[in-house]
Amino acid sequence: MTKKKVYLDYASTTPVDPRVFAAMKPYFSQKFGNASSLHFFGREAGAAVEKSRKQAADFFGCEPGEIVFTSGATESNNFATKGTMIAVKSHKDKGFKPHIITTQFEHSCVLAACKKLEEQGMAEVTYLPVGKDGVVKLDNVKKNIKPNTILVSVMYVNNEIGTIQPIKEIGKMLKAENARREEKNISKILFHTDAVQAVNFLDCNVEHLGVDLLTASAHKIYGPKGVGLLYIRKNTPIKRIQDGGGHEFGLRAGTLNVPSIVGFGAALELAEKERQKNFKIVEKLRDYALSRILKEIKGVKLNGSKIKRIPNNINVTVRDVEGEGMLLGLDLAGVAVSTGSACSAGDLRPSHVLTAIGVSEEESHGSLRVTLGKYTTKQEIDYFASTLKEIVARLRKIAGK
């Protein structure tokens, strides 16, 4: 008998949509040219890259020349933070130290990049606290702005608890602040958002958001792994962090991953067309799953706001049960979930995201992240909810709870 398999970890990665794979397939073998080559094979590959760049620009509401393809969100986030600091330091007085504002529950790659800049003496960083609802406060961003503030980096949607941040409001506030700075001839504050978890469900038009830099990744939207992008508003001061050839307008050296870039463009086009439909379907299933969990299992608490949350995310703390125990029990039953970010798997420390919203270390170890996708079915949700109920009861009995 074949074991049932249920995938509920869409925040970690998504399966490639068959339509996306169909678009990619010719560029692995038939149209295999290097996009930088001048001959026919290269021009053919280069044209495919530019088509994808146009698809990305249409999705984000910008110019194609403002899209730089990367290897993924980690590179894009490092590029946004480090690249802007290098650019600023290169034309400021030697003693000038730029200031970055970010949050305590950003993705680990943003936090690690900021820590590295601090260690190297390249920048000072303010890590904003977030409320118990998992949302950063606009006033908190505003009151921490200093004369030397050069960059604000706030993720659009938290990757663990799915809460939506007030990006449009921050963008509007920074626009007003920058207008005052321009009058006084003070450097503009750049605004970056990691929009990786937002692309499937939310408005990511860069003009609507008021951002100068935006990170996205293909494998979160039914595209391939290993490709991402960074939107860079025209005239934004930024230096490349990867040296080599003159690829990507001289900003990102390295041979272009043509099949994956083609897949990214196709995935973005599909995301735009199907956003509203997928939003409603996934939200209905998410609410059904959450209602079953809260009703049938005692001692369960939702982490973060339910209202300011993307429609596919459930992050709960289950009292008197270890998250790893639930995850392994579900895995044995054929259900794939996580206890947090896939990038932090194997780290025994409590989630920095849950710690930031006031969840105790003990409670944090009993957390579970369940994320749905466009292929999730009600039957899968029913199987998951019933299986989780049995596993929690068994683990509590073993623990004598």
Mean pLDDT: 94
Terminal CA distance reads 34 Å
What is the spatial order of strands in the main beta sheet?
Answer: 2-8-7-6-5-3-4
Question: Could you give me the name of the CATH homologous superfamily of the largest domain?
Answer: Type I PLP-dependent aspartate aminotransferase-like (Major domain)
**CATH architectural group of the largest domain:** 3-Layer(aba) Sandwich
Radius of gyration: 22 Å
- The fraction of residues assigned to DSSP E strands is 5-15%
Care to count the β-strands?
Answer: 12
Number of helices: 13
Word description of this protein:
This protein is an alpha/beta fold and 401 residues long. The chain contains 13 helices and twelve strands. The strands form three sheets. The protein has a seven-stranded mixed β-sheet, with helices on both faces. A three-stranded antiparallel β-sheet has the order 9-10-12. Strand 3 (99-103), helix 4 (108-119) and strand 4 (124-128) form a beta-alpha-beta unit. Helix 2 (40-60) packs parallel to helix 9.
SSE order and pairing:
Layout: E1 6-7, H1 18-24, H2 40-60, E2 67-70, H3 73-91, E3 99-103, H4 108-119, E4 124-128, H5 138-143, E5 149-153, H6 167-184, E6 190-194, H7 206-209, E7 213-217, E8 228-232, H8 247-250, H9 258-296, E9 300-302, E10 313-318, H10 323-332, E11 335-336, H11 352-356, H12 361-364, E12 367-371, H13 378-398
Parallel strand pairs: 1-11, 3-4, 3-5, 5-6, 6-7
Antiparallel strand pairs: 2-8, 7-8, 9-10, 10-12
Helix pairs in contact: 1-9, 2-9, 3-4, 9-13, 10-13
